[in-house]
Specification:
With 341 residues, this protein is an alpha/beta fold. The protein contains 12 helices and 10 strands.
């Protein structure tokens, strides 16, 4: 498996150096700078140099601005801080817990479930979430150029049972609008496809990414567009995020949120109820609440199935049904995600 990390692949450039691209380049990469911005003493909780070397810190400044200064327990900080716990080996926590390498249909394309194909549309992200289930993924083998993409997309075209294309990565919106538009047009030309699903964190961590060109691409797409955001805590959203989400909604895209249940971040009922209410206020429906995947280096984020069920039961007693996400775990070789509550 390659050790290439998501941030190491060059990001597609547009003809103009737009605000979102500047924000994507000007991320916080050094733990010392992050702690300085948050007025935290590194002596009280040093970064793990080994964790930082294996999976470097990367966090947009807009996301840092939503963190609470002076608070080591801030739920946004915990998601990005390279902690000492990442270096501790834990039995059962491995590099590829979802066995995605075996699910490769063609370079850049995975197929785990019937009727859907997942495209590794970008091998890089705007933010490095420490619980990332693809932090050890072989991006080198799954980052086709345009000519190779044409050959890979033929595997979708030849399978008429595939009706939905899912853009993932990395983060597909880390691509520029021209590259993203090219890929979407290739998918639109596949007759049996009727749905385009985009999984992204960019509208949350860099709201400027929702450009006029992106909006036009989604609005004019012949496929039904579904945008699945990844928001784990209500504090991740601010007015700029709300505006970006509203613009996406105005294209006709269906807006959903999936969160990961993370110890020390959102593993209490008040935080989860507030999250559902907050994303709904922004025009997004809760979709999935994932139990963490058992990825090497992330065991300190684990929440048990029993605790997850208890939390969802509390949400169900507090919220209307449409605001209660399904608690799920992904188990390799099953025909769908396993719904636990």
């Amino acid at each position: 498996m390659s050790n290439t990390l998501p941030f190491e692949t060059p990001i597609a450039r547009e003809s103009d150096d737009s605000a979102w691209q500047r924000a994507l380049k000007d991320v916080v990469r050094e733990p010392a700078e992050l702690l300085s911005l948050l007025e935290l003493d590194p002596a009280t909780r040093p970064a793990s140099l080994a964790a930082q070397a294996a999976f470097p810190l990367r966090v947009p400044r807009a996301f840092v601005a939503r963190m609470q200064a002076g608070d080591w327990s801030d739920p946004l900080l915990r998601q990005v801080w390279p902690a000492l716990e990442e270096t501790r080996a834990t039995a059962g926590w491995v590099g590829d817990p979802l066995q995605e390498q075996q699910a490769t249909l063609a370079p850049g394309i995975l197929q785990k479930y019937h009727g859907r194909a997942l495209l590794m549309a970008a091998p890089h992200c705007a933010i490095h979430c420490r619980y990332c289930f693809r932090r050890h993924f072989d991006y080198d083998a799954n980052s086709p150029g345009r000519q190779a993409w044409q050959e890979s997309l033929a595997s979708i075209r030849d399978d008429t049972s595939i009706t939905e294309a899912i853009l993932s990565g990395g983060d597909p919106l880390a691509n520029g609008d021209s590259q993203l538009g090219w890929l979407v047009r290739q998918l639109e030309a596949i007759p049996q496809l009727d749905t385009l699903r985009i999984h992204t964190r960019l509208p949350v961590v860099i709201p400027e990414r929702v450009t006029d060109a992106l909006l036009a691409l989604l609005r004019d797409c012949r496929l039904q567009v579904v945008v699945v955001l990844h928001i784990n805590h209500g504090n991740e959203l601010d007015a700029d995020c709300d505006a970006a989400i509203a613009r996406l909604r105005n294209t006709g895209a269906i807006m959903l949120n999936q969160a990961v249940l993370l110890a020390g971040v959102n593993d209490d009922s008040d935080a989860l109820v507030a999250l559902s209410r907050r994303v709904f206020a922004a025009g997004v429906l809760p979709y999935y609440l994932h139990l963490p995947d058992r990825v090497a280096g992330t065991a300190h984020f684990d929440v048990s199935e029993v605790r997850g069920r208890e939390l969802v039961d509390t949400m169900r007693a507090t919220l209307p049904g449409y605001l209660v996400p399904r608690l799920v775990r992904e188990i390799p070789e099953r025909t769908a995600k396993t719904v636990l509550a």
